[in-house]
Amino acid sequence: MSNNGGNGAGISNITADELTDYMLHKSSKSNNGVYSSSSLDTVCRHALEQLVESRLGADLTTAASGQSTSDEEGWRNVANELMGTSSFRLIQNAVEECSSRHLFSAAMALDACDENADAVASKEAKIPEAPSPAAPTSFSLFDMLDSQRGGFALSPRITAHKIIETNQREKKDDSVAVAATTGGGEASTALELLEKAKDVEDLSPDPDAWEEVRKILYEGLVSLNSDGTDRSCSRYLKVHKSLHEKCRGDSAFTSQLWGLTQNLVGSLLALSRQFGNGSSSASTHSIDLCWDIAHSLLDALSHLALDHVVSSVGNEREIERTFLGICSILSNDVSACIVGMMDPLAGQFEIWARLVGSPRRFMTIIHASRLGGVVLRRCESLGKNSSSESIWNLIHNNRSGVGDECSTSLADIEHCHFLQSLSILRTILFQCGGSREVVSVVQNQFSSELKAPTTHSSFLLPHGVAGSDDVHTLLNEVEKRQYQCNQTRQIGVHDAIHSILKPFRSVLQVKETNDGLVDYDLEVLCTQTIQLIQQ
């Protein structure tokens, strides 16, 4: 190759191999190090790695997950398929274009340095004594993979089957922490795998697999130690919150979102019932856990209601199941008291009551949960019961143990409980238009012996709440029994109306004696309810 007097036009006509030899020779003699071969190689390789990762990263990861590292023929087949894709051709064209542009720019820069050199040096032959190999205008995918030594490897995917297998091994020997070994060599329990899971699709490849994962999540939420302390329930609750965030706004994960919400409903019911009549098994840990679950549940219910209002189609049976779960929670004194301190006017109950398909179905759910009689009884007692006292004692003892004053008084808890019950009763009456039927049902539940509804055992199962189809069948049976009872029941409507309106009239009487104790919203609530029933 001859020197063209440092003219860039002469250099542009040489071949790629000659230009490469020229560059390498000049860069080895350049004092200022402009465009040395090592720096050019580093820049090109970094750009190439970024381009390959963005265009072929997903394909390489998918192929790697299904191939054994020792299966050379399989890798060859995968590579041949990748080389035929549009993404690969795009990278190949970009490499050739980028290579030609960088080489030409480097040659122009080196040629400019020759013009400032002395006359003797400018006359020297530019042919190197030992020409270096020509710079390739294309690249080999296999060479790139070999040089990277696993540079494209991602963290192993956590699948539903891996979590299920790990959980089964842990159950075989509960006294020993049995661990599953991940691809990275780290030992993980089922809970740790759930905490590391990033893709909801991997946790729900099919309905059966997701149902098993959901059961594992539910069991973790209700697994307290024998002394009532938190084993790992709080961590399972964080997993629920994380999955909720990932499922929201994606219609493909609607069933998963409903399942996670039902887990919260079932766990709050199960933990509340563990207190027992005397709350002997209650502890500050279990109360704190119930509080956290209730807070997460109210947040989940708010988002679900909004999603349903926007879509306005489907999920009718899920709405029935969720509303029955809400009524069951509010029928339990412990869980109702906890929820009442967060939502004293029962706003979520009113929202979901409006989502139920018909007033008759609404009354069926109220009849199944016996909620009408329960809230009327709480109104009669002004929110005072043993559960309110037990919860306040636990909160007070916990605060006093660390030397802090308990900011929440027993009167505050009872007041929230009373307001919640009054609001629920008002919603029940308004949702059915103040009909004689709803008055009769509420009064009959109030007058009958206080006992847990028979539907509770059918609704809350060991693995969580019953499925939507099972709840639909259960409500159909309750509706038939309710219709038969209405045909034979005879109750004085006047006495029933007087009993139901008594707590509302009591509030208005307090308003007359001490105006500052009853705010405007509560006054309107009571006045509207009395007017509705009297009509």
What is the secondary structure topology, with strand pairs?
Layout: H1 8-11, H2 16-29, H3 37-65, H4 72-83, H5 86-115, H6 119-122, H7 141-148, H8 160-172, E1 180-181, E2 187-188, H9 190-196, H10 200-203, H11 207-221, H12 233-247, H13 254-273, H14 284-311, H15 316-331, H16 333-342, H17 347-355, H18 359-369, H19 371-380, H20 386-401, H21 410-431, H22 436-447, H23 455-459, E3 460-461, E4 464-465, H24 468-488, H25 493-513, H26 520-534
Antiparallel strand pairs: 1-2, 3-4
Helix pairs in contact: 2-5, 3-5, 8-9, 8-11, 11-12, 11-13, 12-13, 12-14, 13-14, 13-15, 14-16, 14-17, 15-17, 15-18, 15-24, 16-21, 17-21, 18-24, 19-21, 19-22, 21-26, 22-25, 25-26
Describe this entry's structure for a reader.
This protein is elongated. α12 (233-247) packs antiparallel against α13 and α19 (371-380) crosses α21 (410-431). The strands form two sheets. The protein has a two-stranded antiparallel sheet. With 535 residues, it is mainly alpha-helical. β3 and β4 form a beta hairpin. It contains 26 helices and four strands. Mean pLDDT is 76; it is low at 1-16, 26-37, 118-127 and 175-185.
